[in-house]
Amino acid sequence: MKTAASAGTEPITLYHRRHTQRTRGKALSHLAPAAVLLVSALGAFTSSESLSALVWLEFAIGAAYLVLMVRELRHLGHGPLHHERVAWLEIAAAGILALEGYHIWHRHHEAEAVSGVHRFHLLPWLYWVLAVWYILMAFGIARILDRRYLHLHEEGFSGRLTLLGKPFAYRWHEVARIEPADNAAVIIHLTDGQTRQLSFADLHNGATHRDQLLTRAAALPAEA
Q: How confident is the model at residue 222 (pLDDT cuts 50, 70, 90)?
């Protein structure tokens, strides 16, 4: 999907007015996997954990993770209305949590082999569940963000203004006129006498999107 600045008749991706703050908060939430990585690093460097191949693999993924976190924060500074098809930061976080979960499980497994006492350990499973959650987010965030859109085309217009709202679609021949309701809303007067209201108030640059729709509708007689 194109952004608001794009031209043409492709759908425009719409973002919530607090999208930048939410994305920044999501980036900062990745401090939790970073803390897991830090604990593992401290354990290795204080000799309480051996520098095994698994630990070095964790460090490699952790280094990539920190680079990706800085990259995402820089993207937020330059272009907050940007999202990738795959969230690589989430994948790196999943890798850290999955490896650390296995690391903990392996350590307990070795201890149980020596003691002969078998116990259920919750923490590895918790890390694995969180890793699966991060993987789902990695491939699902873009699909969630794409749910809000506005599509202006020759036959009419369609879109969805909220994540859980129903999509709408109108053809120009069904519309008698469109008029502004307030700074970020429109009232659609249909040819059958019914009216509909669309509000862009909760969207980033909502008034701009509202004006795009009004401009397109106003230009129709000239295009005919």
A: very low
pLDDT digits (tens, 9 = 90+) for 102-121: 878 877 777 777 777 777 77
pTM of the model: 0.72
DSSP string, the chain: -B-TT--SSSPEE--BTTHHHHHHHHHHHTHHHHHHHHHHHHHHHTTSS---HHHHHHHHHHHHHHHHHHHHHHHHHH-SS---SS-HHHHHHHHHHHHHHHHHHHHHHHHHHHH------HHHHHHHHHHHHHHHHHHHHHHHHTTSEEEE-SSEEEEESSSSSPPEEEEGGGEEEEEEEETTEEEEEETTS-EEEEE-TTBTTHHHHHHHHHHHHHHHHHH-
